[in-house]
Structures are given as structure tokens and as C-alpha cells.
Design brief:
The chain is built from 17 helices and no strands. It is mainly α. The protein folds into three domains: about 190 residues, Up-down Bundle (Growth Hormone, Chain: A); about 55 residues, no CATH class; about 220 residues, MFS general substrate transporter like domains (Growth Hormone, Chain: A, Up-down Bundle).
């Protein structure tokens, strides 16, 4: 196997004038995928009522999508390098769309869960191939702007997903909302046929490596996603997690011996690329738990309506809409990207530690500043991480690199949600003495007789969980600084 270190491709390999539809098509696809991540949860009550489902089976409408997205992104990126980035984007969009159509037509929760897994796999291909298309089509400042816009549109999808999905569901029903996504997906696939094709000259797809990676990540994520309901010591969790670790170890062995690995060891050994990849993992970790779980606390502790809680969360999501372009503008004017990413990480870490001050009294005033800090940090990261990381890999590996970055993001989204939920529930169980009671409180259902004590337990569990998130983000930020400021990273 060729072990030559990965080097950036010269700018002359990038086409000067990509087709006009390149950026619009990819960005609309990014918005659609991001909306399907953040907006589907709004439909769960209607889906559960219509399909007579609840608990784990219903939650897999969201979890199944996230799992498939994370597991398939790296494989989709490497496949795009070899089979063609436009081709994979078209096929992935059609898979994504067919999953939404199947969900809209599902007569049972099992079929709905399977359809959502199909959509997650398609969304993975859209994000990985879309990033690779941008990296292949643009160079220099143009590439920085393209990835900043990609980050901005991902932020738009995440921020607007719950609101727009709620409006669609109110207007057309939950099945109608999935049908609307189907139509938009078909239009994206049609537009993609007008784009220029790009592919590498690498060898055949590493099917054994791909299968091992998907298996390992699926087993590990399944174990973590089911831990809150089954418990850490449940035999299913222990066996599944153990099998996942074994599959991951075998994947590492296969990659070292493969002539065309799905994840080149030289890519992971690139300290600069790995540092920027960990940066996107860090900001996602500090952002997702707050985005998903704080609205429930706001409605429970502060007595806010769902609309008011959603408006409060704009303090977190609105900065993601504007800071990516601001960050890339600063980079293009000469501000060091390393400095900006460290500032963004400091903001995310500080915001998460600050949320340990959470209290039922004046809750909105307490959370306002930390939410803005986390949002600005996340948006800054969105604007620069992908472009900086892609600049460190050759043209033949941009699909693999885009897949790796989005795999980290997808994995972080699924695991942070599972870990945050598990931590909250465990803290409440320890304080209230009953797992079912703890689960009800974590969902915002307080009793009239014990409401004050339950709220105290809820707040203390939140503070403990936030401390853990802050410590993890601080540790990851330290690793990022070590990697991107190392001499090897600065050389290239």
C-alpha cells in the first residue's frame, strides 16, 4: 500500500468556472438534510398517535436516521471519490427521497423506522458528495466562501427545521410534510444532472473495510442509543458494544493493508487535518445537547410556552446563520484561521460551563449570554473548519475527507443526544430513587405534590450534565490546539 503522506492538490487542478447550478444545488441539499435532522422530532407525537407507537420504537424515527447518517457518511465519501461525486450525489438524493416517500406511506412504525434509516443513508451521501463537489469545483478564497455558505445553510436547516416542519405538519399533516420533502428532493436530483463530474483515479472500492466500518459504528451507536432505556449493564448493551469494538479494531487492520482504503491511514495521520476534524467534533458536542434538551427545561422550570421556548433558543441558533460568512471573510482578509477556531472553541467551552448556573429563577436571563457564546462559537466553526481541513488533502481524497468530517458530526449528534439523555436520567434516578419517575421529570412532567423537589433534582442533574459536557469540550479543545499548532501541521 502507498504510505506517502497526503498533500494538498495544486490549485491548477480545480476548474476555473464551475456550472452556475453547482453551489445552489449543493446548498439546497444541505438545508434539506439538516432540516430532516432537527425537524423530524416535531412530528413524533402525530406519528405515534397515527401508528399507535411510543417509547423506543417511536424514538427510532429520529435515532435510526442519525445512526444511518453517521455510519454511511465516510463510506459514501470514499465511494464518491471513485465512482464520481456528481453520480453519488444524484443516487444519494434519490435514496434520501425514496426514504421520505416510504415514510409518508408507512402503515406501521416498523416500516417508518426502516424508511427513516434509508433516508439517513441517502442524507449521508448528499453531505459527503456535496462537500466533495464543492472542494473539487472551487479553490482558494472561493472554496472558503463555498464551505462557509455550506456551514451557513446547515445552520439554517438546523435552526429553522423545527419551525418549518411544525408549519408543514399543521398545514398538511405529518405524512404531507414528508411528501413535501420528497418533491424537493426530486428537484435537487434533477438539478444535479447539470453539474460537472469529478472523480479520482484511485483503485476499487474497499468493500471489506466499508462493511466493517458500517458494522462497527452501527453496533457502537446502537448500544449507546439504547443505554438510556436498557441500562449500561444490560447483556444486549454489553454484547453489542463489545462486538462494535472488535469490528472497529478489525477495520483498522484492514485499512492498513488495503490498496484503496475507505479511510486512508495517511489522512488520519495528517495532524492538521485531524486537528480541524476534532474542532468540528468539539463544537457539535457543545451545541447539540443544549439545542435538543434546553427547550424542555425552559418550559418546565420557567413556565414558557413552546413558542416562547423556541424564541429563546434563537439566541443559540441565530448566530449560526450569520457568523460563518463573517468568519470566512476574516480569514480571507488575513486573520489566521487557527486563531479564529481557538476563539470559537473557547466560546463553546465557556458557554457550556456557564450553563451550570442554570436556575428556575430568571432562567431566560441566566441562559441568554451562554447561548449566544455557544452559537457564535458553533457558527464560526461552521464557517472555517471544512475549508481549512479540505485544503490539507489532495484532490483525489476530498470525498473521503468530506465523509470523515460529516461522519464525526453525525456521530457527535447521535451520541451527544444519547449521552445527555442518559446523564440527565441517571442524575434524576439517583435523586428521586425511581427510573420511571426520573424519565417523566426529564420529559418535563412534574407532579403537583412533588413539583418543587422534582424541579430541584432536574436543575441539579442539568448542572452535573453541563459540567461533564464542559470538561469534554475543554479536553477536545486542548487536543485541537496541540494538533493544529504543531510544527508538522504548520508545514502542511
Amino acid at each position: 500500500m502507498d504510505t506517502t503522506p497526503l498533500r494538498p492538490a495544486p490549485s491548477s487542478t480545480v476548474a476555473d468556472r464551475p456550472p452556475a447550478l453547482t453551489l445552489p444545488v449543493v446548498l439546497v441539499g444541505v438545508v434539506l438534510v439538516a432540516m430532516s435532522i432537527s425537524g423530524t422530532a416535531v412530528a413524533l407525537p402525530r406519528i405515534g398517535l397515527d401508528l399507535d407507537a411510543s417509547g423506543s420504537a417511536l424514538n427510532w424515527v429520529v435515532a435510526g436516521y442519525n445512526l444511518a447518517f453517521a455510519a454511511m457518511t465516510l463510506v459514501a465519501g470514499s465511494t464518491a471519490d471513485r465512482a464520481g461525486r456528481r453520480r453519488v450525489f444524484v443516487i444519494a438524493t434519490l435514496i434520501f427521497t425514496s426514504g421520505f416517500l416510504a415514510t409518508a406511506l408507512s402503515p406501521s412504525i416498523v416500516l417508518a423506522d426502516l424508511a427513516r434509516i434509508v433516508s439517513g443513508a441517502g442524507g449521508a451521501g448528499m453531505m459527503a458528495a456535496g462537500g466533495a463537489i464543492l472542494a473539487s469545483s472551487y479553490d482558494g478564497a472561493g472554496r472558503h466562501r463555498a464551505f462557509a455558505l455550506m456551514g451557513t445553510m446547515a445552520g439554517v436547516g438546523i435552526a429553522a427545521g423545527p419551525t418549518l416542519s411544525g408549519l408543514l405538519i399543521s398545514a398538511t399533516g405529518w405524512r404531507g410534510s414528508f411528501a413535501v420533502f420528497t418533491v424537493i428532493g426530486l428537484l435537487i436530483a434533477l438539478g444535479t444532472t447539470r453539474l460537472r463530474e469529478h472523480r479520482s483515479t484511485a483503485g476499487r472500492t474497499d468493500w471489506p473495510g466499508s462493511a466493517l466500518f458500517v458494522t462497527a459504528l452501527t453496533l457502537l451507536m446502537f448500544a449507546l442509543l439504547e443505554t438510556p432505556s436498557l441500562g449500561w449493564t444490560h447483556p444486549v448493551i454489553l454484547v453489542t458494544a463489545g462486538a462494535g469494538v472488535v469490528a472497529l479494531a478489525l477495520f483498522g487492520v484492514v485499512q492498513r493493508r488495503s490498496a484503496a482504503p475507505v479511510l486512508a491511514p495517511s489522512l488520519v495521520a495528517n495532524r492538521g487535518f485531524l486537528g480541524w476534524s476534532l474542532a468540528t467534533l468539539t463544537t457539535s458536542t457543545g451545541f447539540l445537547g443544549v439545542l435538543v434538551f434546553l427547550p424542555t427545561y425552559l418550559q418546565t422550570a420557567a413556565g414558557l410556552s413552546p413558542a416562547a421556548a423556541g424564541a429563546t433558543m434563537l439566541l443559540l441558533t441565530a448566530p449560526v446563520l450569520v457568523t460563518p460568512m463573517a468568519a470566512v471573510t476574516l480569514v480571507n482578509k488575513g486573520v489566521p484561521a487557527r486563531l479564529l477556531i481557538m476563539v470559537s472553541l473557547v466560546l463553546v467551552v465557556a458557554g457550556n460551563f456557564w450553563l451550570m448556573a442554570l436556575d428556575p429563577g430568571d432562567t431566560v436571563a441566566i441562559v441568554a449570554a451562554p447561548l449566544v457564546l455557544i452559537g457564535v462559537g458553533m457558527g464560526t466553526s461552521f464557517g472555517i473548519t471544512d475549508g481549512q481541513a479540505m485544503a490539507l488533502v489532495p484532490a483525489d481524497a476530498v470525498g473521503m475527507a468530506a465523509g470523515f468530517l460529516n461522519t464525526l458530526r453525525g456521530t457527535a449528534e447521535a451520541l451527544v443526544i444519547a449521552a445527555f439523555s442518559a446523564s440527565l436520567t441517571a442524575g434524576l434516578t439517583a435523586r428521586l430513587g425511581d427510573a420511571d419517575h426520573a424519565a417523566a421529570v426529564s420529559a418535563g412532567r412534574l407532579t403537583a405534590s412533588e413539583g418543587a423537589a422534582e424541579l430541584v433534582a432536574f436543575t441539579q442533574s442539568w448542572r452535573t450534565t453541563q459540567f461533564g459536557v464542559g470538561v469534554l469540550c475543554l479536553a477536545l479543545s486542548t487536543a485541537v490546539a496541540t494538533l493544529i499548532f504543531s510544527r508538522r501541521a504548520r508545514r502542511g
